[in-house]
Write a structure and sequence with these properties.
Strand 9 and strand 10 form a beta hairpin. This protein has one domain. The longest helix has 15 residues. It is globular, with a radius of gyration of 17 Å. The relative contact order is 0.15. It is an alpha+beta fold. The two termini are about 25 Å apart. The strands form two sheets. The chain has a six-stranded antiparallel beta sheet, with helices on one face. The chain contains two helices and eleven strands; from the N terminus they run H-E-E-E-E-E-E-H-E-E-E-E-E.
């Protein structure tokens, strides 16, 4: 059963916003997180910094084998690899990925009137004995991304984009 658009998008994201900071989201300038990231079974220092107004993000992944940094703005992405070379990721899909990444980073779904995107309501799913609402969002010029929301906890549980290969999930 599909939920009405108003319930699954505007009201649902307004509820998440209200329970995770409310109006404080409007004054948040930057969010920085540091810790240990894991990939391919290896750990390393990770640092993510996000500009909350534009969605520009800098991600540093210092895994045991190789370090890399990815910088993403709403219109472009660049990658610095183990050679210290900086490479633009400028294929059409990379630009679409940059737009979606920036949209999610700035919580564009909190401002549907000023941050345009298409919302599609998907059927609820049950995961670990809890019901999750699914909304597919396609930011203007971006890739579609499915967002899972726990309406009882009022939080985004996961986002998932279909990249050319493989699928990228963030929990």
């Amino acid at each position: 059963m599909l939920i009405s658009l108003a319930l699954c998008s505007a009201a649902l994201f307004a509820d998440v916003r209200a329970h995770t900071g409310g109006a404080r989201w409007d004054t948040a300038a930057e969010i920085v997180g540091e810790g240990t990231g894991f990939g391919e079974g290896l750990g390393g220092r990770t640092r993510i910094a996000t500009d909350m107004k534009t969605g520009a993000t800098s991600t540093f992944d210092g895994s045991a084998l190789a370090q890399q940094r990815i910088v993403s703005t709403p219109e472009a992405m660049w990658k610095e690899d183990l050679t210290s070379g900086v490479h633009p990721l400028d294929a059409p899909d990379a630009r679409a990925a940059a737009r979606t990444s920036a949209y999610l980073a700035r919580n564009g779904f909190f401002h549907p009137g000023t941050d345009p995107a298409t919302f599609t309501c998907l059927p609820d799913v049950t995961e670990d004995a809890r019901v999750l609402r699914q909304v597919r969002i396609t930011p203007r010029g971006g890739r579609p991304v499915t967002v899972w929301i726990d309406p009882a906890e009022h939080v985004v549980v996961r986002t998932q984009e279909q990249a050319p290969s493989p699928r990228a999930s963030v929990r």
